[in-house]
Structures are given as structure tokens and as C-alpha cells.
Amino acid sequence: MSNKELKPTDAELDVLRVLWEHGPATVREIHQRLPATPHRGYTTVLKLLQIMSEKGLVRRDESQRAHVYSVEASMEQTQQKLLSHMMDKAFDNSMSSLVMRALATRPASKEELAEIRKLLDQIEGESK
Amino acid sequence: MSNKELKPTDAELDVLRVLWEHGPATVREIHQRLPATPHRGYTTVLKLLQIMSEKGLVRRDESQRAHVYSVEASMEQTQQKLLSHMMDKAFDNSMSSLVMRALATRPASKEELAEIRKLLDQIEGESK
DNA sequence: GTGATATTACGAAAGGTTTCGTAATAAAGT
DNA sequence: ACTTTATTACGAAACCTTTCGTAATATCAC
Predict the structure, then answer these.
(1) Which among A80, A109, A110 is the nearest to B101, CB-wise?
(2) Measured between alpha carbons, how far is B70 from B83 in angstroms, rounded to an integer?
(3) Domains plus CATH for chain B?
(4) pLDDT per residue over A26-85, tens digit each?
(5) What is the spatial distance between Cα A96 and Cα B108, in angstroms, rounded to a whole number?
(6) How far is A28 from chain B (nearest CA, A)?
(7) How far is the CA of B9 from the C1' of D23 (A)?
(8) Are B98 and A115 within 8 A, CB to CB?
(9) If you placed Cys at B26, which of A32, A114, B7, B66 could pair as Cys (CB 3.0 to 4.6 Å)?
(10) Tell me: the pLDDT tens digits for A88-97?
């Protein structure tokens, strides 16, 4: 009933990022924590959350006067969904070409590269 | 005048993929090569190309009766743009977290992992 | 040239996104 | 209770995407 092909839009991602970082929050809290640019009115954020609620992107707790919203899917799950979609649409379904393009685009620091190597070791270790 | 923030839409990406693989092509050729599902009428594809032309995503050669379209940006450039945007929107501007999430999501084959390692070596080699 | 065919141009509809103004409602202050 | 304040609900506008039908235009066959 829920998981169709729901890719959060860019504006929705801005909201989700606040919720991921801050945890459950009211419209007012979210509105305050949203980036200053682009500017968004209070009711704009409210409407966004109402729509996201219908889509199943967020959950709404109405027990308080000011409803409290929280994410439905973890940041990790959402990131995976976004990456899978992009891999399908623009990388011929090959995650390795996506990864290689990413690495070639924005070289990471030494520490980050080391982390990536560690992850590669893990993956190869498991696959044995 | 050209490079604003032009992220090709999903339908536009379908068209671009044909052009990247096949090279410059007419509407008819593109229409035929497009995936069967979702079905798209001929004039739908034409309209898409006209809009993409205005956006600067494709170039149009009108010297022939049937206009010939070609991409404005290479596949690599477009992939980079898409990845940068996603990194900004959903990965806190960290390419390494994007890469690690990608690797964790869809493990690659042994050969692909080896390729990635090679690329890591290259990057670290250069940064010295 | 006339008619058939293929292509482009145009416009519009349907749906989604994003924005916000205004109204309704609830809570709090006095 | 009444007024003020904060919140939600509703609806609409502006814009974009995607779709396609119809009209205009060019090309080709004869």
C-alpha cells in the first residue's frame, strides 16, 4: 500500500533532512531549521508536510495541538532508493560505474578514501 | 547563458540515453530505439526534443528535412551533474558517503570491485 | 502539378510540484 | 466570556512535465 516508486522531490528532501538531523518536529521547528534560501513561508512548509503525509513519506502525531511529524523511512533507506533510481536511469543499472563516476567527479580526502577501501575489503570478505 | 541548473528529467534521460549510445539521430530513430515501456507516441518524443532543444540539452541540425538531434553534454558530464546534485541534496555534500552508500546498497562483482580499487590507487597517486 | 506521405509546429489537457493567502479552529491570556 | 495568538485546513495560482491530437508544411511519386 505504501512503497510504490516514491522518490522525494527536492523540496521534500529539504524537509526530510531537517527531520533526519533533528528528529520529530513540529511545522514551526521545521520551518525555522530549513535553509534560509530559498525562502519558504510557514504555510508552504505545512502544506509540504501534509502532502508528504499523504504520500507516506512522513508520519503525523496529532495528539498535541501542534502536530509532530517524523520520517517514515530512514536516511539510509531513502538514500538507497535515490541511488537505485539514478543507477537505473543514468548508469545503465551499474552501481560500479556510478561509484567510479562519483569518485572521478569529486575526489575524496585521504581519510575518506581509506574508509572506502575498508568497505571494499568488507564486501569482498563477505562474498567469499 | 546555458548552464543554469539543468537537471534532465526522467523522460529526458531516456532520450539522452538513446543519443549517447547511438549518436545523432532523427525523431523517428529515437522513437524507435526508446524502450517499449512506457509507450510513447511519435509526437510525444518530438515535443520532448523540442523542449530539450530550448533548454539546451540537445542541439538540432535543421539542414535535412528530418531534423537531426545530438546531445549538448557528454554522458560523463551529465552523470557528474546528476551526482553532484544528489550529493548536495541528500548526502550532505559528501561524495564519499554517497559512494559508500552506493557500495553498501548494490554490491558489485569481483571485477568491478577491482576496477574501483584501481581508480582509488590512481586518485591517491595523483594527490601526492 | 496533384495526391499521398512524412515531418514539424502548435496548442492543450492532465497530472504533479511549489507557493501562499485566507478561513476555520484551537489554545492561551485577560 | 472575549480577545489575541498560533495552528491547521482548504483552495487556488503559477509553473513544470508528459502526453498526444490536429494543423501546417515539406517531400516524394506519379
Answers:
(1) A80
(2) 22
(3) 10-71 (1.10.10.10)
(4) 999 999 999 999 999 999 999 999 999 999 999 999 999 999 999 999 999 999 999 999
(5) 6
(6) 22
(7) 29
(8) no
(9) B66
(10) 999 999 999 9
